[in-house]
């Protein structure tokens, strides 16, 4: 399933009348770079917005190219964009990973490179560390998805929410780790290339009965801006922690 292939599969093989694997030493390393042909199996999703506002929020995603610098030129990317009209929007991409030991615990670390472009001026202050767009990385046993939640405060509307714990704004949750706030560019400025990882705060999750799990990269926004995120590189490492 890996578009550029499994970079590394470290296993110890032992012989007890048959060939098997020493699961304690299994480490899988998946790399997605660059997104040359298409979105490489990644799926885009959006949450934290009122149902029915998809058009006004200009939610979009797809494969394309971006200009990085004079020395690098154009590179392929998975683009995702949206306008947080209600000062709240969560945009994320997800990917299912296979080839793991079934029903087992894993420590997951992810490295990501992305391009951030703010396309509309924001007139408010971004001095507060709790305002802006926040990068989050996550791992899940089952597919991270969205659902409609009835808004008790305003009974005429429902909200599209996530069915997992990503944390709120500048904090992480059970399923996602907060990496840091994304620096904005002003209207007309060149996009900024950013790198992030959760090497110091890995996510612990489990594979399913088929040896699969999901990973995700997302941007949690709480100010009214239009933002385009272009993912150019994702590297995910899965370290076996034992059977469930």
Explain this structure to me?
The chain has 244 residues and is an all-beta fold. It has one domain (35-232): Sandwich (Jelly Rolls). The protein is built from no helices and 18 strands. It has strands spanning 6-10, 13-15, 19-21, 27-32, 43-47, 49-50, 60-69, 73-83, 89-97, 104-118, 133-140, 146-150, 158-162, 176-181, 192-197, 203-206, 213-221, 226-243. The strands form 4 sheets. Strands 1, 4, 7, 8, 10, 15, 16 and 18 form an 8-stranded antiparallel β-sheet that branches. A 5-stranded antiparallel β-sheet has the order 5-9-17-11-14, with no helix packed on it.
Can you give keywords for this protein?
244 residues, mainly beta, Jelly Rolls, eight-stranded antiparallel β-sheet, five-stranded antiparallel β-sheet, 0% helix, globular, disordered N terminus
- The mean pLDDT is 82
User: Uncertain runs with pLDDT below 50, 5 residues or more?
Assistant: 1-25
The helicity comes to under 10%
Order of helices and strands: EEEEEEEEEEEEEEEEEE
What would you call the structural class?
mainly beta
**How widely separated are the two ends?**
25 Å
Radius of gyration: 19 Å
- At the first level of CATH, the class is Mainly Beta
Beta-strand percent range? over 45%
In DSSP terms (H or I, runs of 4 or more residues), the helix count works out at 0
Number of domains: 1
């Amino acid at each position: 399933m890996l578009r550029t292939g499994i970079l590394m599969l470290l296993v110890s093989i032992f012989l007890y009348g048959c060939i098997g694997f020493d699961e304690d030493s299994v480490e899988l390393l998946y790399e997605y770079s660059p997104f040359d042909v298409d979105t490489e199996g990644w799926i885009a999703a959006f949450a934290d917005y009122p149902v029915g506002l998809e058009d006004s929020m200009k939610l979009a995603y797809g494969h394309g190219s971006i200009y990085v610098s004079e020395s690098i030129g154009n590179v392929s990317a998975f683009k995702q964009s949206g306008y947080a009209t209600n000062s709240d929007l969560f945009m994320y991409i997800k990917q299912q990973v296979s080839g793991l030991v079934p029903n087992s615990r894993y420590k997951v670390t992810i490295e990501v490179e992305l391009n951030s472009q703010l396309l509309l001026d924001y007139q408010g202050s971004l001095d507060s560390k709790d305002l802006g767009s926040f990068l989050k990385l996550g791992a899940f046993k089952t597919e991270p998805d969205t659902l409609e939640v009835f808004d008790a405060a305003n009974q005429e509307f429902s909200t599209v929410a996530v069915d997992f714990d990503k944390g709120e704004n500048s904090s992480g949750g059970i399923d996602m780790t907060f990496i840091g706030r994304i620096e904005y560019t002003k209207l007309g400025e060149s996009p900024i290339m950013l790198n992030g990882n959760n090497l110091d705060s890995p996510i612990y999750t489990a594979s399913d009965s088929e040896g699969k799990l999901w990973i995700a990269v997302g941007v949690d926004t709480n100010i009214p801006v239009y933002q385009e995120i272009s993912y150019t590189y994702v590297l995910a490492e899965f370290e076996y922690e034992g059977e469930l």
